[in-house]
Amino acid sequence: MVHEVENIRLLESVGGLKAICDLFKHKDTAKDVKLRILEFLFFYLIPETSGAAKIINSIPRKTTEDKQEMLGKYLSNVNGLVRELHMSKPFGDTNLEW
User: Fold this and answer.
1) Keywords on this record (predicted)?
2) For residue 44, what are the domain limits?
3) Nearest to 49 by CA among 88, 95, 81, 3
């Protein structure tokens, strides 16, 4: 899903980020589910473009900063996630063009 930008925009437009973040913050959510959500958020935060946000094939591409701003509406420590993404590079080089 995360490599299909159109699917990501759909997830964002239907309130999927809020739903995922609400589930993550809920005290009764199982730890393994929270771990999978964190994995998803790391994948989500990977930039879709290495430069300024742009549009390719009429689909807007977002930078990590764009996504960080969106997630910040629902989670309080998105800066920490982004910092960890940049420091540990769990997916290798994240200077991508999708």
Assistant:
1) Cell cycle, Cell division
2) 5-88
3) 95
Residue 74 lies in a domain: yes
Cα 30 to Cα 56: distance, rounded to the nearest angstrom: 38
pTM of the entire predicted model: 0.80
Q: Of 70, 68, 65, 40, nearest to 53 (Cα)?
A: 65
Cβ neighbours, 10 Å, residue 97? 11
3-state secondary structure of 23: helix
Rounded to whole angstroms, the Cα distance separating 65 from 13 reads 18
Question: Cα–Cα–Cα angle for 72, 74, 77, nearest 5°?
Answer: 50
**Tens-digit pLDDT profile for residues 15-73:** 999 999 999 999 999 999 999 999 899 889 888 887 766 888 888 889 889 999 999 99
In a domain, 93, yes or no: no
